[in-house]
Amino acid sequence: MDNFALTLALGTIAALANVFGGFIVTARSHWNQEFLKYFIAFGSGFLLAAVFLKMIPISYEQSKLAPLFILIGYFVIHFFEHTAVPHFHFGEETHPEFLIPRAVGVSALVGLTTHTFFDGVSIASGFIINPTLGFLIFLAIMLHKIPEGFTIASLFLASGRSRKKALTSSFIIGAATLAGVVLMQFFHSLVSHGLALSAGVSIYVAASDLMPEVNKEKGIKLSVMVFIGVGLFYVTEFLLQKLGL
Ligand SMILES: [Zn+2]
Ligand SMILES: [Zn+2]
Q: How far is the CA of 31 from the centre of ligand 1 (A)?
């Protein structure tokens, strides 16, 4: 399988995980919600390790402008997920004390679509540089893909939309992930900037979207899982090297 086919296949898996997250909400399956919280906790630890140990140093090796693009990536997501959106947070939408205005669904979808587009750019940029980096980034992103689909679909339901529309919203963020993967193929020469932007986006996602959800939980169980996520990153990197990838 060539690099592009592999990237496309993994991008599709990531996109399907978004749809699966939406499906959990819309099918009202009695899926264990605790399980999703673990994904969020593992995901933030793993993703932070990937960003600080791989994405930032490698993008800086490729371009001395990387720090600027990292900062831009961070603030692009801050703007689209939070400044332009009145109400957005990761996880299930459960605020019985107030109704979520309909407009929130659309603005949150725009925000999350921007974010998932860069999930795709991250995976593709990783593979363009080398397969080990690609796989590490893919796994780092994968861990929060189901919660992402879950988040947008539950926000759609909470803002008074049908289940069909809620499921469609998770399709849209999945499609944006694939769009990011495909678009990067046409801009191989911009990979250093793509990786740096993605690193900034990923810092936001891990530290400003996922970690606050971990910290909302009472007790230490979930915050310990963040460290296990970091540990998993090391184990995965070790195994990938053993496999000669
Ligand atoms: Zn809420
Ligand atoms: Zn994401």
A: 20
